[in-house]
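Allow me, if you will, to draw on your knowledge of protein folds for a short while. Thank you for your consideration; the sequence and its tokens are set out here:
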Amino acid sequence: MKRIYEAIYSDRRTREAVCNASATALAESSDAYGNKGDDQIYRTSMSRDVADRINWSNSYSVDFEQLWTVEYEHPDVEAATLKENARDALDCAVDNGLFDIDIGC
């Protein structure tokens, strides 16, 4: 999603023309009858107000996940995220970060 927002907002002229941009992640799924389709699993948005504050010449160091707004997260994705965060927190608590590299402790 970061690349989508970079493509839209890093160009000044495009940024001035766009008030709000959104990005949607889809995943292929199938129902109980075997019908396949694409399900939305994650959707974010970013306003021009936020984009105007980003230093686009240094965007590689920007934590976009802190800047975009999560509009929708599929329950399975949300559960996986919570599980991963809990695992990271437990890892940090067990070893206090010593002799280990833990991001977000």
Summary: Residues 23 and 44 are 5 Å apart (CA to CA).
